[in-house]
Specification:
Helix content: 55-70%
Mean pLDDT: 89
Low-confidence stretches: none
Distance between the termini: 62 Å
Structural class: mainly alpha
Strand content: 5-15%
Oligomer: single chain
Number of strands: 2
């Protein structure tokens, strides 16, 4: 009589445990993109919501979220699967999502689909592009782990 033991199940369980551990490292992680602190963040708030002093709302952050959230969800789900399979470190999911969010916010600003600037503002800054004057607000868009 010949007796053989199949250890495939044990190996698969070990691999599954490792995959679960990789996913557990992602639990509770989140990221946010925007402007965090400083005068550029104040300017962003004035632009996002408008002011009683005549600046119309130019919602570049909210528009980006509405336009890109489905894309971000797909990207995260693909990255989580790559973490599960061991092809991507867990920390990369948050980093990659944050970088994409920043690019998308800047892309929304670049598209310029906002209330036009007043003629006074155009004369002062020499451009008709809303949300870009000195570039400090644009350059201050970043992401952070929340």
């Amino acid at each position: 009589m010949n007796v053989n033991f199949n250890t495939t199940v044990e190996t698969d369980v070990d691999e599954l445990d490792a995959a679960i551990a990789r996913l557990e490292a992602l639990d509770g992680k989140s990221t946010e993109a925007g402007l965090f602190g400083g005068f550029a963040a104040k300017k962003a708030m004035w632009q996002e919501y408008g002011t009683s002093r005549g600046i119309p709302a130019r919602p570049f952050l909210r528009n980006t979220m509405y336009e890109s959230s489905a894309k971000w969800s797909r990207s995260v789900s693909e990255d989580v699967m790559a973490v599960f399979e061991g092809d991507l470190p867990g920390g990369a999911v948050v980093q990659r999502l944050g970088e994409q969010m920043v690019k998308d916010v800047r892309r929304t600003i670049d598209a310029g689909n906002f209330a036009p600037l007043s003629s006074t503002t155009v004369a002062r800054k020499g451009s008709r592009r809303p949300l870009i004057d000195t570039g400090d607000m644009y350059a201050s868009i970043t992401h952070r782990e929340a």
